[in-house]
Amino acid sequence: MTETTENKDLVQDDVQAETTAEEVERTEVQEEVELSVEEQYEAKLAALQAKLDDEENRHLRLRADFDNMRRRQQLDREAAEKYRAQSLLSDLLPVLDNFERALQVETTSEETASIIKGIEMVYRSLLDATEKEGLQVIKAEGEQFDPNIHQAVMQEQDSEKETGVVLRELQKGYILKDRVLRPTMVSVNE
Q: Which end of the chain has fewer CB atoms surrounding its CB within 10 Å, N or C?
């Protein structure tokens, strides 16, 4: 072989080697590009999944808030229905007190007795109407003092009764269903 042929073969080998090296590089670059595209898609997918999870959590929280609000409104409606007459009954308590005072008046004549009887009939019908709405008298005399339903305005001493027992009822107290409208004013044993 001649030198030129040898040179041509060497050049061809070099060109082939360069071509093979370029192809390997291109393949590696393509794989890197493909991997980076895959990685990009995976990153986008992960970001979208995180966003979806956040939106689902937000949706669940909003739904829970809505359910809580609906439950609260239902309870408020029930309470409003249950205690709808509270204001009216509170305003009628002094009227009941005045009827009781009028009924305690001593009668001396037949005319006065008939008037008292009429007042008693009106008082009874008023009491019946208030009881239908759930108004109840708080029992006090002889009971143990309870600060939730009694208001102690004086103390007396009675050695025959226990300490803390209500001796006298000074003003009636009333409960509407399970709420105290007015505590009973009482005198308590020391």
A: N
